[in-house]
Amino acid sequence: MQVHVEEISPVKKRVNIEVPAEQVDAEIEKVYAGIQKKAKLQGFRPGKAPMQLIKRTYSDTMRDEVMRRIYEQTLFKALGEHKIEPVDSPTVESDILQQGAPFKFSALVEVLPEILLTGYTGLAVKKETYVPNQDSIEAELKRMQENMAQLVPMSDDAVVENGDVVTADYTFSVEGFPNETSTAEDAQIEVGANQLIPGFEEGLVGMKNGETKEIHVTLPEGYRLPEAVGKEGVFTVTLKEGKHKELPELDDEFARQFGEYETIEQLRAKMVEFREKHETDRIQGELKDRIVQALIDKNPLEVPDSLIKRQLDAMLENLKNRLQSQHMSIEMMGLDDNGFRERFRDAAADKVRGGMLLMALVTKENIAVADEDLAKRYELIAAGNPDMLDRVKEYYESNHNAKNSLFAEIKEDKAIDFLLSSAVITEVDASELKQAEA
């Protein structure tokens, strides 16, 4: 057997193998003999059909089986001898298998790149400065107030305003598109929520109970029928009932409805505390992302396509699960599977690069997981619930693969902390960061 290895790139090798004719012929005869023992051909008892007929009838079956055997006998042996560790199944191309001739094939193999980690101390990164924002607290209180609003039927002489919720029947048609029609009965519409075609909700403002009105709109970009974009659509609407939102007062009674608060100021104080934690966690998370990106920038790295594909598959599956829990889909975001993979390929590649570089740092700096690290992670997962803590420990202690994944996650986090411990961190305003990352 002759083996020649070509370096295609830092992550791709082509392994060229030539199997001598004698070995090929021996395998062909073995396979034909095995087929002959089991073959059921008309006019012959099993195992008694002449070899000439077997060869004429089962040549394709023989070829597939011999090639499979040769791959198993030679390819993995060659990979082992040349210390090549594939990260995915090799892609094989071959000549036509022929008796009496050598068999040549090649395997394109993806491998992990060699990582020579440098320049990972003293990385310069920017961190957003946390700024308290009372306006955001008041906006959240306003949202809570809206959620607890009571819907009160409006009087016959009242008119619809933004924020009202109306019940209406309507028909819809598009100029020049006779099939583009629809009807709805007892449709519930929150006016001003901007959930329907632009212009429709605005047209409801000023209507009274029992009134019928035509509302003309221009079909926007992204309309489900592309050729109708820019055309005029007409809603014929009958308002059956309108309801105004009656908001509760933001007072102590309002605060007490959330259980643990006696005054509205206690509720505000807790919201300030919650926002500060939420924002500082976000800022720290984004800082960690930037330090990993800085590590990638210092250590450019080509990564295997197969690992990028796996990362994209995981990201897509996670997104679909999140959207499904919200009764949504990626199609509602204007994407499909291929569109998602194209749009987020670079992000997936950087995710793979970052993970590989961090694991290289773990090895280089001998970063290990102590019992204390594991105990802290169990507590974090259990979120302060003692009963849950016992179940978390039991799960990871009894699941070898899950525990290994958790160890890898802790090591990665400790590697990021190691980078941050020596980094040059400059705090800047959020607006400056947005401009720099735009």
Automatic annotation (TrEMBL):
Single GO biological process annotation from the record: cell division
Domain PPIase FKBP-type: 163-223
One Pfam family recorded for the sequence: Trigger_N
Catalytic activity: [protein]-peptidylproline (omega=180) = [protein]-peptidylproline (omega=0)
Intracellular or extracellular location(s): Cytoplasm
GO cellular component term of the entry, any: cytoplasm
This enzyme's EC code(s): 5.2.1.8
Family of the protein in this entry: Belongs to the FKBP-type PPIase family. Tig subfamily.
NCBIfam families referenced in this protein's UniProt entry, alphabetically: tig (TIGR00115)
Function comment: Involved in protein export. Acts as a chaperone by maintaining the newly synthesized protein in an open conformation. Functions as a peptidyl-prolyl cis-trans isomerase.
Protein's name according to its UniProt entry: Trigger factor
Biological source species: Oryzomonas rubra
Lineage: Bacteria, Pseudomonadati, Thermodesulfobacteriota, Desulfuromonadia, Geobacterales
Gene it is expressed from: tig
